[in-house]
Amino acid sequence: MQRVGDGNEAAYRVLMERHLNRSLGFATRLVGDAAEAEEVMQEAFLRLWRSAPRWQPGAARFTTWFYRVVMNLCIDRQRKRRSQAVPLDVAGDPPDGRRGADGDIHARQVSDRVEDALAELPDRQRAAISLCYLQGLSNKEAAAVLEVNLKALESLLTRGRAALRQRLDPMKDDLVGIAT
Q: Tens digit of pLDDT for each residue in 116-174?
């Protein structure tokens, strides 16, 4: 980050290469739309470039800081989207991009239902579950990203898992053997 703060474009590219894919996956899970997640990542890396000159080594790990930036941008987009909601009958049907065998279709449908259940969680529960289970961060790292103590993170995880279990219970037989 210090080299990026000094205007070193090669160091900036290294950070992008190391963190883009995982952060994009995290953003996609939070906002639920790949194109919107890409826009979030563009803004996140722009903020990285602009903030680098003020970077304080030792204040926070880079990944913790960057996930926090991505999460805040995603939450801002979610709030904005909710305030601009369009009735479903006006929005129309989304294009069906699924192809392949019946098994692939079924697996995608199950995956979509799981993603929908995850999307219905409150922002902080969804972020906690995504950070710990989908991004592979430790509880301590996820707590730092969310700016909560470890006990609060564990509470978010417990409530999030319980809500997911309740939402997905009717389809538990479909979930067996599906890896998404």
A: 888 889 989 999 998 998 888 899 999 998 999 999 999 999 999 999 889 888 776 66
At residue 141, φ and ψ (nearest 5 deg) are: -65, -45
Cα–Cα distance, 136 to 159 (Å, whole number):
19
Structure token pair of residue 90:
């006006």
Threshold 0.85, pTM exceeds? no
146, 131 contact by CB (below 8 A): yes
Q: Are residues 78 and 109 in the same domain?
A: no
Angle (deg, nearest 10), helices 102-119 and 150-168: 130
- Interval 18-65: pLDDT, tens: 999 999 999 998 888 899 999 999 999 999 999 888 888 777 788 889
Asked if residue 29 is part of any domain, the answer here is yes
Of 123, 119, 134, the closest CA to residue 72 belongs to 123
CATH of the domain at 73: 1.10.1740.10
Give the pLDDT of residue 179.
44
Q: How many CB atoms lie within 10 A of CB 143?
A: 22
Range of the domain at 33: 1-84
